[in-house]
Design goal:
By secondary structure, this protein is α/β, with parallel strands linked by helices. About 55% of the residues lie in helices and about 10% in strands. Helix 9 packs across helix 10.
């Protein structure tokens, strides 16, 4: 017959297992913002069978998207640039300011450097083309949800070419005097690694990685991971070809 002490111990173990299972089964909560109803429905249908992703809301314009984000607090919002009432860039800027925990993924038919850079500067964490095949879009969304940064290599390459042509002055490296550890972390960011993956790779705690990121953001004059990677490449701190290969 089990003793009361053993019963309590068994109950505690069961509770821990249940808690861990609940954490592992937690879904990525997504809002879709696009003015085309058919496109929104198509995205919903693609994500319907995904166990790790849940669409919790839809918006047909920028103001509605911002209102939904404030109310529902999603993990990710898929945001089109061309939206009525408030365009995607303005919405991204407001979401980044008022709901910084929500990651903004721009999903647009525009792939030129100016739109990508404008979106990043507004606070978007990622930028994907609407022309992607459905399976690639789903995989990209999963990766983005885990890593919070997503710029495809072709888009990043064009973006960096544009930045290099526009920037004739030699950057003053003294303005961004990163420590060796911050450079390592920035390089891993460029490869699309999450805070947890970076912590394991460098033998640090996740909290320490976050502290390094905050210090790095201040030195680079940026507000998020994507801006940090772009700025790091622009200043020659990390390589576009090597560091963004996995993004």
């Amino acid at each position: 017959m089990p003793t009361r002490k053993n019963a309590k111990k068994k109950k505690s173990i069961t509770a821990k297992k249940t808690s861990a299972s609940s954490t592992n089964n937690r879904k990525v909560r997504v809002i879709i913002a696009d003015d085309q109803t058919l496109f929104r429905e198509g995205i919903k249908d693609m994500l319907a069978d995904e166990r790790t992703i849940e669409v919790i809301g839809e918006a047909a314009d920028g103001k509605e998207a911002l209102k939904l984000v404030k109310t529902l607090k999603p993990n990710v919002i898929l945001l089109d640039i061309k939206l009525p009432h408030m365009d995607g860039i303005q919405a991204a800027r407001q979401i980044h300011k008022e709901c910084p925990r929500t990651n903004v993924l721009i999903l647009s038919s525009f792939e030129d450097e100016s739109h990508v850079m404008e979106a990043i500067q507004a606070g978007a964490n990622g930028y994907l083309s609407k022309m992607l095949p459905s399976y690639e879009l789903v995989n990209a969304l999963k990766a983005f949800a885990n890593k919070n940064v997503m710029i495809p290599q072709p888009v990043m390459s064009r973006l960096m070419d544009s930045l290099r042509k526009a920037n004739n002055a030699i950057p003053d490296s003294s303005l961004v005097a990163l420590t060796r550890m911050e450079v390592k972390i920035l390089a891993l960011l460029g490869r699309g690694q999450s805070n947890k993956e970076i912590a394991v790779k460098l033998g640090l705690s996740v909290k320490t990685v976050k502290n390094h990121l905050n210090n790095m953001f201040q030195k680079l004059g940026v507000t998020n991971r994507t801006e940090a990677v772009v700025k790091g490449i622009d200043l020659g701190i990390i390589s576009a070809e090597k560091e963004t290969d996995g993004a």
